[in-house]
Design goal:
Layout lengths: L4 H16 L6 E3 L11 E6 L2 E11 L11 E10 L5 E4 L5 H14 L1 H10 L2
Antiparallel strand pairs: 1-2, 2-3, 3-4, 4-5
Helix pairs in contact: 1-2
Length: 121
């Protein structure tokens, strides 16, 4: 596993760029299972690898955090199998916020709405 945080930031940034240019399409679904998901779950496939993106409530385990032991929201990007079981979770990097925002923008149809709204007289 790469230990350089920059590699993970670059990987997530590439997924964000592919999402923003429409090369990578995401599907929004209602969450299910034992995860404490906030909002919807988002699914896509890139080069035969299934991915899930979610915002979840988790207990803060960071020893340096003043919130240690309290529930906080975190974004999870995971490789999943055909039954939606988590196979591996990407490390937590700030770039996940941008990906999550881009995915929500795409799945909400915001671009098409704005294009239509601004093109009418």
């Amino acid at each position: 596993m790469p230990t350089d945080v920059n590699q993970w930031v670059e990987a997530v940034a590439k997924l964000t760029a592919l999402t923003q240019d429409g090369s990578l399409q995401w599907e929004a679904r209602s969450p299910f299972g034992e995860r404490s998901v906030v909002g919807l779950s988002y699914y896509t496939e890139y080069k035969h690898q299934r991915l899930r993106l979610e915002r979840r409530m988790v207990v803060d385990e960071d020893a340096a955090s003043f919130r240690r032991g309290s529930r906080v929201e975190r974004i999870f990007l995971e490789f999943i199998d055909n039954d939606d079981n988590s196979l591996w979770t990407f490390p937590e990097v700030d770039a996940l916020e941008d990906l999550y925002s881009a995915v929500r923008y795409q799945t909400a149809g915001a671009k098409a709405f704005l294009d239509d709204l601004l093109s009418t007289g």
